[in-house]
Amino acid sequence: MQIRLGLIIATCGVVFAAMPLYAEEMPFEKLAKIEQFIQNGQDAEASPKLRELLIEAKALVKADPENPANQFLLSKVIYYIGSDDAAALAGATKAVELAPRNAEYRIWKAAVLMAANMPDKAVVELREACSLAPDRIEYTASLVSALAAAKQLGEAEKVLAGLIQREPKNGRWLGMQSDLRFQADDQDGAEQCLHRAVEIDPGYYNGWFNLGQYAQGRNKPAEALPLFQKAAAIKPEDLAPRAKIVQCLQALDRLPERDKAREDVFTVYAGGKVRETVFCRDLFESGSKRITVYEFFEPTGLRAVRYSFTVADKSGQKAAETVSLGSYEAITILARQKHEIGPGERLYHIDRYYPGGHATYAMFKKEPSYDEVRKIVLEMLEGKREPLVSPVLPVKPTK
């Protein structure tokens, strides 16, 4: 089961008293633990517990449908499971109707509305929540985000100004201001906000990371590298800046350092908190084409792939073709039967997939290095390498 992530917020603490008392864990205590599992990427632990809690929440609503806490609980569980977004919104709406002065319920309803791409309606709920709980600064921050999503940038700036006044040393608010400036097509202003953010709040992770993004977007990997390294130092368990470090070192042709940085990416993955099955390890251009390279952490299945090169135009909008290094089970079995590889070996092949067909460009008896694959892909894109005689196997592999 694919568990929904985006709406885990602090909405449990104020409603315990509304729930019946049990000798075992109360439903909201169970939900809080499940949310922690979800935040930690432990879907395997969260999924069965969500299913169990769904049964319990439905029973509570059936027994007492006028209890807003029951509706709230059921709405959250349904949303996390991802089984029925309309039912999740209906439960959140019912909770608000039953307890209109409960700010937590309005915050949850707003979050569900945002996930359903209804920011204007979310703004209404958030304004009410901020009125009911003016000291909850997170509510005000959510209102800024909803206003921005609703394209009410001027109003978002006004609300955000209040946050900056309340917490002038919090880099996050300047980060939000940067987002608003970027949305208003003021990239220079957006970047200036981030510089101020990390100046007043050196531990502001998003500031360093996004400054790195701006530098990388200007094709300045040497400038971007230390910014991503700052971000990685602040959140060593986060995959994103470590992948960016690999990209920058590749662009700078500092390959031994790149390989060490890639090891760091896999170390983070081995920690068990990474949801992704791939990471972006390289970005480069060839003529009019822009290539994005993804590496799979654990190539598995009958059509296992290690690298996937997505080839697009320079705008990045139109994907023209894909090139991959794979090791398909059927091809490997066929090669073993033909005695082209030994019993313990696998066949690897570089395939180019384009509209209307595909061709194989190279084959290997063992997994080639990334640099070997990258070189062949560049030759292919530059028209300097032809496909093998037949794209239909079997063909004799390259040693």
**CATH homologous superfamily placement of the domain at 1-116:** Tetratricopeptide repeat domain
* Termini Cα gap: 42 Å
CATH class of the domain at 1-116: Mainly Alpha
Low-confidence stretches: 8-23, 391-399
Across the major sheet, the strand order is 1-2-3-4-5-6
Following the backbone from N to C, one meets helices and strands in this order, namely: HHHHHHHHHHHHHHEEEEHEEH
Task: Provide a count of the helices.
Answer: 16
Largest sheet features: 6 strands, antiparallel
Overall 3D form: globular
Structure described in brief:
55% of the residues lie in helices and 13% in strands.
Overview of the structural elements:
The protein has 16 helices and 6 strands. It has 399 residues and is α+β, with helices and mostly antiparallel strands. Among the domains are: 1-116, Tetratricopeptide repeat domain (Serine Threonine Protein Phosphatase 5, Tetratricopeptide repeat), CATH 1.25.40; 285-381, no CATH class. A 6-stranded antiparallel beta sheet has the order 1-2-3-4-5-6. The protein is globular, with a radius of gyration of 26 Å. Mean pLDDT is 89; it is low at 8-23 and 391-399.
Summarize the SSE layout with pairings:
Layout: H1 27-39, H2 43-63, H3 68-81, H4 85-98, H5 103-115, H6 119-132, H7 137-149, H8 153-166, H9 171-183, H10 187-200, H11 205-217, H12 221-234, H13 239-251, H14 255-270, E1 278-286, E2 289-296, E3 303-313, E4 319-328, H15 329-337, E5 348-354, E6 357-364, H16 370-381
Antiparallel strand pairs: 1-2, 2-3, 3-4, 4-5, 5-6
Helix pairs in contact: 1-2, 2-3, 3-4, 4-5, 5-6, 6-7, 7-8, 7-9, 8-9, 9-10, 10-11, 11-12, 12-13, 13-14
